[in-house]
Design goal:
Chains A, B: Belongs to the prephenate/arogenate dehydrogenase family. 2 copies of one chain form a homodimer. The first copy, chain A, is of the alpha/beta class. Chain A has helices spanning 13-25, 38-47, 57-61, 76-83, 101-110, 153-165, 175-201, 208-213, 219-225, 230-239, 241-263, 267-286; strands at residues 5-9, 30-34, 52-53, 66-69, 92-95, 115-116, 119-121, 142-145, 169-172. In chain A, helix 7 crosses helix 9 and helix 7 packs across helix 11.
């Protein structure tokens, strides 16, 4: 591990968690940070998220071996251009964004002579901002690296070692496949959750108060991810458009088939699907990606 | 409160929780129980879910002032017919089913000379069977009563008092409105969760192992409710068909609008919706229907 100084650009949930995890698990590494929002910089300094919070991105990246851009994927290009002139030539550039083809393209354009290894730790909560981060966010979660063709193996190895030291498991994947997989396991679930919460808010014949009171029937589960950061998620859908539309098409086909089964009273089709879907939950629990407690361990 | 003996027909998650809540919070009331599955009867007796488990529904309801049918809504008619000849004439008949128009009709047909007050405690977990129940399931949750026209006020008051004593808040509603409200807050969320979990399982270009590994991106939330009891949920969709299809139509319209926004790169529409949906989560937490801890309080 040759990384001694890490600059974190963007000090929200992900940037803050990365900073705190570095401090706790790799205390030998110095951290610097920058956020374009002055209020976030102030709060990050108060919480001591990084060793030093700077007022410009340029100062933050000075002397670092690794810079991690923790900004919405739509802001990656601008954040990269912001540091292009002052970034040490040997520094590795990475990120934590949820779409990877767009990030790879934006980084290659803004920093053509730097080593860029995009990354996506598949972890988060519905909260955002400089108070949302915590050191154990990445424990047991997967971090996907999508190095472009020709990325130096040393940089990939360094970044792998760093994420593993922070508690994550690392997988290497090409950006295109990443975008397809995450469309299924993250982007479509968010889109559906946002949609159903919106649909429920807009009804005339069911009041908002009723929606809230009877939300324990299942709806409240969807409101959690529909409370996620709006800018981050707007950018995800705009930047992973093709894979999202492709997966949305498949989901809609399947939903239409179930709609037809309900309309025609075809209980067998419903029962067959409803029996099959239990297995996946069991596998997710067996693989340590969720807790076995009923109802997410909610306090009853 | 004139109820001294309650018969519980069906000893799964809901029947078992009702039994345990009665024992803990209304210990003066005697409970009897029956389940058509012999293995469930044996297990219920071992756990002491009710005072006495009987081998026939007829024996279980003998001498009771209230019988609560805790069976899938598609089995309500049969369960009611099963006790019609032996049920004391003064006994109130209720249930815990998720659709109420169909239940009201089935009870009126099977037990035309009894007082029937259908009920729906909006509470549950993804688990089922005689080991799944617990006494605090109804604490702070809403229980909706849908008494038919002409139901005696005394019966409604008795049932209200009983559910309140078990920790629930009670609301009276007509069956038709119940079915519309619950289609939104419970049935459509379940249908969507089952669908997306099915879609993710059936893909060729994304492996099942990838779906499981990267499920922390949002997908795992949906697998919880998609692990719910298949028979119960098949029956809900077959018995609340009209309201489910109506609400599904509205959801699909909204999803199509978002799909168009993604295709055309209309970030403003996405951002506007994603900002709006945060409020509902906050209201649900403020009203005590979910916990404020990030990520459902999952252990990080």
């Amino acid at each position: 591990m040759t990384i001694r100084r890490v600059a974190i650009i963007g000090l929200g949930l992900l940037g803050g968690s990365l900073s705190l995890a570095l401090r706790e698990k790799l205390p030998g590494i110095a951290t610097t940070g920058y956020d374009r929002d002055p209020a976030t910089r102030t709060r990050a300094a108060e919480r001591g998220l990084v060793g030093t919070v700077y007022d410009t991105a340029g100062e933050a990246v000075s002397g670092c071996e690794l810079v991690v851009l923790c900004v919405p994927v739509g802001a990656i290009g601008e954040a990269a251009r912001d540091i292009a002139d002052v970034l040490p030539s040997h520094a590795i550039v990475s990120d934590v964004g949820s779409s990877k083809r767009s990030v790879q393209k934006a980084l290659a354009e803004a920093l053509p002579s730097h080593t860029c290894v995009p990354a996506h730790p598949v972890a988060g909560t519905e909260q955002s901002g400089p108070d949302a981060g915590f050191a154990t966010l990445f424990d047991g979660r997967w971090c996907i690296l999508t190095p472009p063709d020709g990325a130096p193996q040393q940089a990939i190895d360094d970044l792998t070692a760093l994420w593993q030291a922070l508690g994550a498991k690392v997988e290497i994947m090409d950006a295109e496949h990443h975008d397809l997989v995450l469309a299924v396991t993250s982007h479509i679930p968010h889109l559906i959750a946002y949609t159903i919460v919106g649909t429920a808010s807009d009804m005339e014949d069911v009041t908002r108060s009723e929606v809230i009171k009877y939300s324990a029937g299942g709806f409240r589960d969807f409101t959690r991810i529909a409370a996620s950061d709006p800018v981050m998620w707007r950018d995800v859908f705009l930047n992973n458009r093709d894979a999202v539309l492709e997966m949305l098409g498949r989901f809609t086909e399947d939903l239409t088939a179930l709609q037809r089964a309900i309309r025609s009273g075809d209980g067998e089709t419903l029962h067959e699907l409803f029996s099959r879907t239990r297995d996946i939950r069991r596998s997710i629990i067996d693989e340590g990606q969720d807790d076995a407690s009923p109802d997410f361990g909610r306090d009853h």
